[in-house]
Amino acid sequence: MTSITTAATVESPLAPVQATGWRGGLGNLVRKELGQWWATRLWWVQTLIWVLLLNGVATVVMLEGAGMPSEEVVTEAVNTFLQMGAITIGIGVVLTIQGAVVGEKELGTAAWVMSKPASRASFVLAKLIANSVGFLATALLIPSLIFVVQAQFMLPVSLDYGQFALAVGVVALSVLFYVVLTIGLGCMFKGRGPVAGLGIGLVLVGQFFKGMLPLPLVMATPWLLGDVAASYALDSPPEFNRMIPIIVTAAVAVVLVCLGIWRFHREEF
Amino acid sequence: MQTKVVQNQSDPAAPPHPVPEPVIHTVGLTKTFGQVSALEGIDLTVPRNSIVGFLGPNGAGKTTAIKLLLGLSRPTSGKATLFGMDSVQDSLAIRSRVGYLAQDPRFYTHMTARETLEFTARFFYQGPAAAIRARIDETLELVGLADKADRPTKGFSGGERQRLGIAQAQINYPDLLILDEPAAALDPVGRRDVLDVMERLRAYTTIFYSTHILDDVERVSDYVAILDHGRMVASSSTAELLDGDSTTYELTIRGDEQATLRALRTHPWVSDIRSVSQNGSTALTISVTDERAAESGLLRSVIATDDIVVTAFGRRHFNLEDVFLQLVKGQGE
């Protein structure tokens, strides 16, 4: 170790960070979380997985429907892409970020960050923001753009791009819900088991049981968002009010964000 | 054995070493986990620009106390103020003026040492990237990690992580450095370097650190606080603590031991004498009840005894290990 410099001896061009309150450290934490997506191999690994899965299956559906009526092929391909996206991206989100909060609590990095002038809300919000951006871009936006190109060349009838964009927006809400759920559960539990179990359980229970449960109950879940998205893309309104699952999911997500932040505020390191 | 250690202060208005603007001040700071009491009513005052060693055996509650100061944990009762601000309500403002090294520092393994320091610095500073880089380079140099700056911290040894921990703790020129076992994972050279850094920082910052290494405390600390089983058993300046016990004297003689003992026992203020003879010398430990009388009469009466040569005389002095063991053992009994 060598000579030492201190604040008292340095004329520094650096200014103190001004953000205080709940925004304390938010910019720095978001930058760090985004770095974990875009400065590592995570972004291209995720992109590869979702393109192979979603666009791969969509390609198979389009090829298999070569002898079918045009409308049926389009319906099948769009339904498969959107419904599968809503389900599998949900599972992927839970599997990928189940340790985002819990892992940091276990490893001690959360305590380290919280010893700096960063608010607990910033810690949680940074994870929500960066993981939402990461998944929306790699698991939804890129595969959706590729799907549009695929549809252009492989489907006999062209898509209504406006309606398809609306449908992708609905799936995006589903993705956001599972990001919020996973981060929120991470704030509430100390181990990865409950986070992964409850997160994946919620996705799978919805797929297996949504047909058996009363419609009003199912409408108050994110389970119908795949159907809602497909109905927008194909311009075929379902039997239920499409706005209800959208509003309920968005509201529950907001509540989960608040609960997660509240719980993380009470965390003792 | 008695020491001049100031025992646990129950009256916050009367700190052991009154200082106008303490950096840390706790009153009755208590933390319980369920039925387990980790800290019991800690009263602690840390003066500005001092180095305070926070001692205690494993499980004494040192890390718990540090986490309460940083707002990483909430007190069950009592209060801690840093720079006059409440550790719970004003935690963010406090943390902007504090540098902290955890007992087992952990960092994001995908980041290099340089990236870790940049991430840390960005919590405190905004400004040109070149200025941040300059600050980081200077800090890496300070802790001897310049040649490992661009290696991911994943491959760092315990000692390297500790050095990086010290670097990130002082990157913001903190007004208060809180170090939890700063030298624990370091080799002797690294340990010496850490103590050097602490001594040089003394003029600019206050350092509150926990440690098991008593020699280090004796070397650099102005004040010592000793914790045992969640209770503060001593809080005093290091000098006071080691200054010696004015009621116990040590005397080494050659010659007639019995005559010396007879001479000493004539004094009513001599309460106890213990002697150990070895190689023709006798070491006497003499306890007295009247310090003033002993100062003037004890040595004189021994010298007046025939055929006695006094080879050493003085107040009994302690090292920190004596004091620590006595206090901790005393609490345990």
Strand-residue fraction of chain B?
Answer: 25-35%
What is the strand content of chain A?
under 5%
Low-pLDDT windows of residues of chain B: 1-14
Rg of chain A is 22 Å
Residues in helices of chain B, as a percent range: 25-40%
Mean pLDDT of chain B: 87
* Most extensive interface: A-B, 39 and 45 residues
Q: Class by helix and strand content of chain B?
A: alpha/beta
Low-confidence stretches of chain A: none
> What distance lies between the first and last C-alpha atoms of chain A, to the nearest angstrom?
31 Å
Mind describing the biggest β-sheet of chain A? none
- Number of separate strands of chain B: 15
Protein described:
The complex is a heterodimer of chains A (269) and B (333). Chain A has 269 residues and is mainly α. Chain A contains eleven helices and one strand. Chain A is globular, with a radius of gyration of 22 Å. The mean pLDDT of chain A is 92. Chain B is α/β, with parallel strands linked by helices and 333 residues long. Chain B has helices spanning 62-70, 91-95, 113-121, 129-142, 158-169, 188-201, 214-220, 238-242, 257-265, 291-303, 320-332, and strands spanning 24-33, 36-46, 51-55, 77-82, 85-86, 98-101, 125-126, 176-180, 206-211, 223-228, 231-237, 245-255, 270-278, 281-288, 308-316. The two termini of chain B are 14 Å apart.
